[in-house]
TrEMBL record:
Residues 1-190 form the Protein kinase domain. It comes from Rousettus aegyptiacus (Egyptian fruit bat). Pfam families: PH_3, Pkinase. Keywords: ATP-binding, Kinase, Nucleotide-binding, Serine/threonine-protein kinase, Transferase. Its EC number is 2.7.11.1. The keyword Nucleotide-binding applies. Residues 1-55 are annotated as: Disordered. This is 3-phosphoinositide-dependent protein kinase 1.
Length: 403
């Protein structure tokens, strides 16, 4: 298999490619060509005994400036005599372990072809084929060959992956029993690759992974309303006074203040605030939030300015998250199933929201573009509120309460 190491010592989770209309198959094939080509050369017997260590091959800009791909063999090569036999160790992560290592406690040359199949799957889909909550469950899926393909997975890539992720190591495309690496390199997935002068070719430039989208993208990631009802999410009434019945805890209000006037209902699981509140009204809003909003525990005592469910895309996959825009400003996203804060979109003056259609919007940051989908079809409202908070922070009132 191939691991990535950059000069800074960090490795990207998935080397992703493509454009705003999704990755091309040619660019994906180009990014996987060093893996396929290197495996062929590293399976040749070493000319003389050497220390047991992985061999490093530099692929220039294939994974970014100054990056290296380390070919990690699924066996230990010490001498030519030992080369012909099976090895006794594996170096890698759980998602790439071959089934024969799990069932027979031994790897072989063809184990690297299994890892290549995992790499190609991840380059296309954005996640490895075998995923679970822990290593044991991942291993069980590997042994049973339990994985599936997301929609829009390239047909030629799927065919190649299916011919590499085969439980019988002697049936994998590229192994000696199947004719060696010639048939692997001749697969239609690599039809745009010229193997003879591979080391002279310029790899395609890495760009942000933004899958293709359409107006009829469906909400297919679970019944979020039922989930939130179990979580005890607040209920927002639709009356003209915008009162929050579930949050009405009887907190004292100063004379003439009606903090509910700043709260606008979008649906039973979403709301947003006007930003015209005073410092005193902000304190009352924060007290009410701390008393009745179950998402308050994730926002570090910051006032929530807008919240709602979104589908956060990664590659061809999506996960339902509760997106929380707060003062600071901050953009938190929470796993509503396990009730865990999953991360935060880094906020800076360079942050820019972009609505693509009714459901889809991007949040551009200097180092990454976040691909989000609003199942209610109000992507423009998210962009409008993010822009409003951005202006409030960086233009109109840099010292205001929203900071």
């Amino acid at each position: 298999m191939v691991r990535t190491q950059t000069e800074s010592g960090t490795a990207p989770v998935v080397p992703s490619g493509g454009s705003r209309q999704g990755p091309t198959m040619d660019s994906t094939a180009a990014k996987s060509r060093p893996s396929a080509n290197s495996l062929q050369h590293t399976t040749q017997p070493p000319p003389q005994p050497r220390k047991k260590r992985p061999e490093d091959f530099k692929f220039g800009k294939i994974l970014g400036e100054g990056s290296f791909s380390t070919v990690v063999l699924a066996r230990e090569l010490a001498t030519s005599r030992e080369y012909a036999t099976r090895a006794n160790s594996f170096v890698g992560t759980a998602q790439y372990v071959s089934p024969e290592l799990l069932t027979e406690k031994s790897a072989c040359k063809s184990s690297d072809l299994w890892a290549l199949g995992c790499i190609i799957y991840q380059l296309v889909a954005g996640l490895p084929p075998f995923r679970a909550g822990n290593e044991y469950l991942i291993f069980q899926k590997i042994i049973k060959l339990e994985y599936d393909f997301p929609e829009k997975f390239f047909p030629k890539a799927r065919d190649l992956v299916e011919k590499l992720l085969v439980l019988d190591a002697t049936k994998r495309l590229g192994c000696e029993e199947m004719g060696g690496y010639g048939p692997l390199k001749a697969h239609p997935f690599f039809e745009s690759i010229t193997w003879e002068n591979l080391h002279h070719q310029t790899p395609p430039k890495l760009t942000a992974y933004l899958p293709a989208m359409s107006e009829d993208d469906e909400d297919c990631y679970g019944n979020y309303d039922n989930l939130l009802s179990q979580f005890g999410c607040m209920q927002v009434s639709s009356s003209s006074s915008h009162s929050l019945s579930a949050l009405d805890t009887g907190l004292p209000q100063r004379a003439g203040s009606n903090i509910e006037q700043y709260i606008h209902d979008l649906d039973t699981n979403s709301f947003e605030l006007d930003l015209q509140f005073s410092e005193d009204e902000k304190k009352l809003l924060l007290e009410k939030q701390a008393s009745g909003n179950p998402w308050h525990q994730f926002v570090e005592n910051n006032l929530i300015l807008k919240m709602g469910p979104v589908d956060k895309r990664k590659g061809l996959f999506a996960r339902r998250r509760q997106l929380l825009l707060t003062e600071g400003p901050h953009l938190y996203y929470v796993d509503p199933v396990n009730k865990v804060l999953k991360g935060e979109i880094p906020w800076s003056q360079e942050l820019r929201p972009e609505a693509k259609n009714f459901k889809t919007f991007f949040v551009h940051t200097p180092n990454r573009t976040y691909y989000l989908m609003d199942p209610s079809g109000n992507a423009h409202k998210w962009c409008k509120k993010i822009q409003e908070v951005w202006r409030h922070r960086y233009q109109s009132h840099p010292d205001a309460a929203v900071q």
